[in-house]
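Quick one: structure for this chain?
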Amino acid sequence: MSAARVERTATSDQGPKLSRPQTVEGKVSEKAITPSPASRVPRVRGSAAARFPGVAAPEAAAPGAAAPVPVAGAAVRADPVAVTAIAVGVVALSCALMQERSSVAELAKSLKAELDRYSPGGKLPSSRALVERFHVSPVTVTRALAQLAAEGLVVTRPGAGAFRAEPRTATPVVGDTSWQEVALSADTATELVPRAVDASGVLVTLSAPPPGVIEFNGGYLHPSLQPESALAAALARAGRRPGAWGRPPTDGLPELREWFAREIGGSVTAAEILITAGGQSAISTALRALAPPGTPVLVESPTYPGMLAVARAAGIRPVPVPTDADGVRPELLEAAFRATGARVFVCQPLFQNPTGTLLRPERRREVVRIARAAGAFVVEDDFARRLVHEDAGPLPAPLVADDPDGVVVHVRSLTKITSASLRVGVLAARGPVLERLRAIQVVDSFFVPRPLQEAALELVGSPAWPRHLRAVSQELRSRREVMTGALALHLPELALPHIPSGGHQLWLRLPDTLPEAFLLAAGLRAGVSAAPGRPYFCAEPPAGHIRLSFAGVAGPTEIAEGVRRLRTAVDELTG
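Got it. Here's what it folds into:
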């Protein structure tokens, strides 16, 4: 049989034009085809080889030769050279956008340096002159001028140009604010527990240290440990969701509440979940809902300074309950309930901050039983469940998972395991207390912004999420081992009573001869910062302590160097 011959027709850039049936030599005949127009592929001016090095240009068809037409039923294949050219073009476009942002910053910097040449109100060169002088695009000039306008340095007038702005007043007017001392303290005489808004213990972990100082006082993951790419992708996908910028339900997105309910486990349902703006907001809502101003609240000693600050700001009196290597001591907790009449106990049963201890299984049951007998609530701050180390073994379930009577109000968030800016957390509770929690949440903030909730939902549902959890678990174990090894080698006089299997910190007791405040100051002079132990106690501390975080630094090398610098600080004080 001779080779089949396909009768070709004239073509155009929108595909072949077939006005009659195609015929194939042989016994096969085909019906007339009315093809849909082919998708247009953006043309690239000039040869692909010239604009995109390394990409071969397609071979030109012979003059007068018609383009081949696919036979009906045959797969239409894209030109691989065209596809490659488009892909390279996308990369080139991305690089061009990055270069454009850099050019805008450089041009704005150059124009800012030249502003002194013009008097206030003086006109700057035209956009065309700036394009020719700096060899940039008109878009770059427009964006640079917009940046200077946002900084209040220039004023742009459509159709007229850009002008130097009037200088700001150099010396602000100094008023007399002494009256505020009386106004702010006028009601304290009638308050059973005067409100004290003291954020110093929180600011220690939120403030960035000076340049060159190794940060052992951080409370969040170092950028190298954060899922930045996954977060960016999740936020981009969230922004494209239908209704992403609409008003969310006040309790939170149903899908996100379902996910958190599954994470907590036990008998907790989505109906018992409230989405909050991070863990700190959840703790604040819980304390204000459960403890009226002037009443006591029982807390572990030592404990998280942010919770102590929330309690004091609400006029609630924290009462310490001592802990040991197995968590809070049940007999002392029971005695504290009897002595104070408190109706709330705040605890961190898992990898407690700052000690890193775990509440022993038998004590877990005792804590809930004691609180139930006292007619009190337990606020369970489960902040570190996703900061588990690789060698930790199985974790106990949250207290709330086995609490049908609604004794436990559960708090957790995504912030610690992701980024300080992903402020998405939850309150889980059952019974009438849920309505009170909801009311305070709505009054305070209405709701958590929907784009943030959508981004959180995208993140935890992506394949990158379990990979991130595994990577952080491995890295935290490695960093803990590096820090404990360096401390044992260089600072054996600092006692480390417990090596945690979760969390991001070590809790060290100082010798009586080494004052806490002096050591921290000497550490800064040596180039290392640590968190003081004093803010973790709501009463007089039994000894000096420091907390060292190994999650907020760049890596093992920086950990080892930070401990070495801390050794230098100790030597400075001890001679």
